[in-house]
Amino acid sequence: MSEVARPTLSDALTERMLELIRTGGHRPGDRLPSTRELSQRFAVTTPTLREALRRLEATGAIEMRHGSGIYVGAAIERLVLPNPNMREIHAVQLLELLDARIVIEPPLAAMAAERAGQEELAPLKQVLDEAGRHLRGEDAELHDANMTFHRATARLAGNSVLHEVVDSLLTVHGPEQREILQIFDDRRRDYEEHVAILAAIEARDAARAEELMRSHLADVKTVIEHRMRSPR
């Protein structure tokens, strides 16, 4: 039977840093003490402290800004975190990624239609306006706008955990999402389907919003499966 791994000094320091953030009432964006102050506070060497800081930065709990300092990260309050060690995935996993999105995102589109107010929908319109300006080969900008649309739709559903799940899927598999755009290769249709989803949400037609989101993602998956079987 293998010996249970003992917490290292870096492990303990990581926990103490998190406790400092929690008990100090720090919020995302708040500046933390300098590395020198933290080293003195916790009575550790600078290299040991930096190792703990790197761990916290990898999960988004803190943000280290060169020449500025250490700040509380936006992910400090998240329940679901993307795996920072994940690199590339295989074709089967790419399809599984879409399967996961097909299960999760359509009900969230329905919830957004039921709950989102008109003021909350304004950013979605702006995102689609941005996407519409990048349909002629500006794929980096188009990809960012598309992912922002899906993230924002999930956020408007009002369930922070499910929003974090969607955000994590899109964040960890960013390169694969860009590959999907390349394989699908119908930017205009993709854009028009997003516009139709937004129209259903604006009309508070939950069933239609769910149907359109499911059809949209399933359509993308079907095209990708076909292209993978018959590479160009």
TrEMBL record:
Residues 7-75 form the HTH gntR-type domain. Keywords: DNA-binding, Pyruvate, Transcription, Transcription regulation. Gene3D superfamilies: GntR ligand-binding domain-like (1.20.120.530), Winged helix-like DNA-binding domain superfamily/Winged helix DNA-binding domain (1.10.10.10). One of its GO terms (molecular function) is DNA binding. Pfam families: FCD (PF07729), GntR (PF00392). The keyword Transcription applies. InterPro entries: GntR_C, TF_FadR/GntR_C, Tscrpt_reg_HTH_GntR, WH-like_DNA-bd_sf, WH_DNA-bd_sf. This is GntR family transcriptional repressor for pyruvate dehydrogenase complex. It comes from Nonomuraea fuscirosea.
